[in-house]
């Protein structure tokens, strides 16, 4: 829910009027100049985020002046699929602006009491923070993209394209220099600005605190870049009131510490969803309405973290109704599919489900056979028809001399690599004259290399791997020759 729809305009804010109005006007004018420079290219900024207004001349916990748009509060999102995170100011939930003067005075007294009570604790934390990071902080504003010290370079020299595109404010330089250590370049900063310009107004120390926290819980340094490009608002999410609560939610689901970082990298937008009003209801829906066993929720989230941030009721109902109508699938069958491969809730029916189902029909499988294949190996819905399913079918019929109905007993065949497993094992046994007579059994492709060599080939794994490598090189050379011949024909 957007902030403007919940909290009406407060006339009291205009007691700080001029600095706020000028700041907003400056940002709008700067955005307009950028659009004019680009001619016909119209840049649409983030439509689901709102800048939060702070008091003029406010200083951060480290004593630095903050921009009008710089804040330690959580970023607000107006997402059509979920309620946004709670809006807080200085640790308190935002209240309706139509309060009496007495209520405002009472709130101010409580704020002063809280500030006095926490002064000692805050000073200890700040002292520890500065001691631990003293060297890095001193170097932020003087680090280039290669991590080397810079001397006296202006904004125009350090970020010429960025300065030209958005009329760069020099106050942003320390933040840009810090973010550059994550391999972010000028085009990336422009992209971030276009998606959510307030993210580049964040105080560098606040940004670093939040990214350091993500790194501490297992997010890889190389993934920070991708996270910021997809969800730049994460720079505005506070550690205490947002990041930690969402991590606690994931841990409560049973997600191992070793997988937390991977889940965040895959679905960084989950921080923009309220734990109580969105994430927990989604999990309850998966258990109570879809029918996934509560013990399997941890597995489902690890396989598809995006399931937490999609409109799960529509995704489930649409795909369940389609599979039940198209293939006669029971509810239990579809629940098994979702549990094994929750990504199917993201697949398009027209471009994902139908082409693969129709292909399986075209090779002679009945709907009941297709349902068996999909229930056992739901990943089939993610495989390319032309590059994966069709070549394996052709090899099954023409080389292995097997029938299509064998796929219902060994659907795993469709998930195995044709180049790395199916063809090498078949050709290896043929070369040793140990291939079974008649249809080649698909069960030979299931065991590990060690079991295959021991039980069927009667030779060492090293000999088989050498044969496979030679076969791969030969096939690669043939493909290269075919491509060269095709290019020559097109030129002719």
TrEMBL record:
Answer whether the UniProt record assigns the keyword Transcription to this protein.
yes
Q: Which InterPro entries match?
A: MTERF, MTERF_sf
The biased composition feature labelled Basic and acidic residues covers 111-123
Output the Gene Ontology terms for molecular function: nucleic acid binding
Q: Write down the Gene3D superfamilies for this protein, in alphabetical order.
A: Transcription termination factor 3, mitochondrial (1.25.70.10)
> Which SMART domains does the record match to this protein?
Mterf
Query: Is Transcription found in the keyword set?
Result: yes
Family membership, please give it: Belongs to the mTERF family.
What's the protein called, per UniProt? Transcription termination factor MTERF9, chloroplastic
Organism equals Salix brachista
